[in-house]
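User: I'll paste a sequence; please echo it back and then give the predicted structure.

Assistant: Echoing your sequence first, then the prediction.
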Amino acid sequence: QVQLVESGGGLVQAGDSLRLSCAASERTFSTYAMGWFRQAPGKEREFVAAISRNSANSYYADSVKGRFTISKDNGRNTVYLQMNNLKPEDTATYYCAAASTIQGTYRYWGQGTQVTVSS
């Protein structure tokens, strides 16, 4: 079973940048596609970005396209989410998750890291 631990969240101002990290315990990390999701208070969890096992493909929600970048370092068992030009509407708890394929079911989830963007 893959254990995932997110870090890098915090309180920032609109226009600032943050980089989230998600470290995996599993040595077979390279066999998993990874995704980032977020959940704001009172809202359902939503997809943010995903990347394939070997980083050949990535997908983004329209709301973050052009501002966020997902990357995967199989050597470090870590996936990142670089978030630039943050907006107050990006405020949420961010979760990373692992799946067998980029469009598959995300079976393993981290505990989340809070991102708060003030205006």
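The CA atoms of residues 70 and 81 lie 5 Å apart. The chain has a mean pLDDT of 96.
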